[in-house]
Amino acid sequence: MTLQASRYRLRPAPRGPRFAGQYGFALRKSGFRIRKLVRTKSRIFSLIAVLCLLAAVVAWSQDTRGTISGRVTDPSGAVVPGAQVVVTNVAMGNKTGLTTNADGLYQATFLIGGVYRIEAAAQGFKKVVREGVEVRIAERLEINFALEVGAAEQSVTITEEAPLLNVESASAGTVVDSRRVADLPLS
User: Fold this and answer.
1) Are 158 and 128 in contact (CB under 8 A)?
2) Which of 40, 103, 115, 175 has its CA 20 to 30 A from that of 8?
3) What pLDDT, on a 0 to 100 scale, did the predictor assign at position 20?
4) Counting beta carbons within 10 angstroms of the beta carbon of residue 146, is it exposed (0 to 12), middle (13 to 18) or buried (19 or more)?
């Protein structure tokens, strides 16, 4: 497309930054102004879209929920596929039922901070219960179970605490109760 000099006559730009063109003149035809306006709006829209995507990535990395995962094995150390694992929040009573996969692994995700009770059971094995497992913000715990051979009505309760040091992840999180917030100095 070639520009014809007769169609686009140059004239002096009106005074003020609103009407001044890039080079100090304005075109008489309004088509050029519309194209320039559309180009400017598309650039602004693209910039806003990129900023929204960056904000979403930052917000996604703010993980406030914890995860409990582990492996269920038998006394010989072989994995137990299809074992039933129930993770219960003691304070709220929320239960999450899971089944181990072919590798004997289970994973309970998106758990809110609190104290949990975990039960693992399989046919031909005693039910194993672990009490007092504390999940903190953005914490990933690995709780493994070794089932003992016996009747399903029998259960083994483990009172061992979860390890205090998390060696799987470098993330840090904590739960702040209302009393600590109220005791903060105001200045």
Assistant:
1) yes
2) 40
3) 47
4) middle
